[in-house]
Design a protein that fits this description.
α2 (52-68) runs antiparallel to α3 and α3 runs parallel beside α4 (92-112). This protein has helices at residues 11-35, 52-68, 73-90, 92-112, 130-151. The protein starts with 10 loop residues before the first helix and ends with a helix. It is flat and about 65 Å long. By secondary structure, the protein is an all-alpha fold.
């Protein structure tokens, strides 16, 4: 068993944190280039270019592959985790942000400007019902089980 001080020598964690930090830091000058003004709050905000979540998990994944082998189960798990984070960042989180923009516009138009509400429909199928999640879990178990039966 390793002492907790071993975290000070964890290169995967360092790479992940550096990936997050650099992505967050880059958001400030990129925002300036696009918007023409400095916004120091971009450092601790979510969203924007580049994705710090993606940078963090991909950095960790690459480090795990390099240290444990790109054919290791640990790298595969990290890659799958990274894929889920990236899908979530571009799918669910982006759509939620879009809905927030539309709701803010509706509030602006209706409450402040007195305009009628737009009939633009928002994407309603964002998350999953519990049965859909359970079905996905069962399918994942079946796929892995069959794969292991074929492999061994």
């Amino acid at each position: 068993m390793h002492p907790i001080s071993g975290i000070l020598h964890n290169h995967v964690l360092y790479a992940a944190l550096i990936g997050w930090f650099m992505a967050q830091a880059l958001k400030i000058p990129i925002y300036y280039l696009v918007e023409g003004k400095w916004d120091w709050h971009r450092f601790h905000g979510s969203g924007g270019m580049p994705s710090s979540h993606t940078s963090m998990v991909v950095s960790a994944s690459i480090m795990l592959g390099a240290l444990n082998g790109f054919d290791s189960a640990l790298f595969a798990a990290a890659l799958v985790f990274s894929s889920v984070v990236m899908y979530d960042a571009t799918g669910v989180r982006r759509e939620t942000g879009r809905q927030a923009e539309i709701i803010n516009q509706i509030l602006q138009d209706v409450l402040i400007n007195g305009r009628p509400i737009s009939n633009v429909e928002l994407k309603e199928l964002i998350g999953h019902k519990p049965i859909e999640v359970a079905a996905g879990a069962i399918l994942g178990i079946l796929i892995a089980s069959v794969y292991l039966l074929i492999l061994f």
